[in-house]
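Posting this for the archive.
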Amino acid sequence: ATTFDLAETIPAGFEAVLVFRNGVNAQQVGSSPSGVDQFILNRTAGAGGVSQLQFGTAPSSDDTIVCYFIA
């Protein structure tokens, strides 16, 4: 698994986010993501309590990851 810390903590109640890898929507799963197209959101697991995405496998260094949430 590979993790990415977001720039901030997603507020409680917004546990569903939209994540795109190279413009294609990745699938949010409840646990145990498999592959680069599935992820879980850990709302406060990142450094300093920021939100964190965990992918089943590491995206390529050429991939672009974009995460959206609306508060």
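The chain has a mean pLDDT of 94. The chain has no helices and seven strands.
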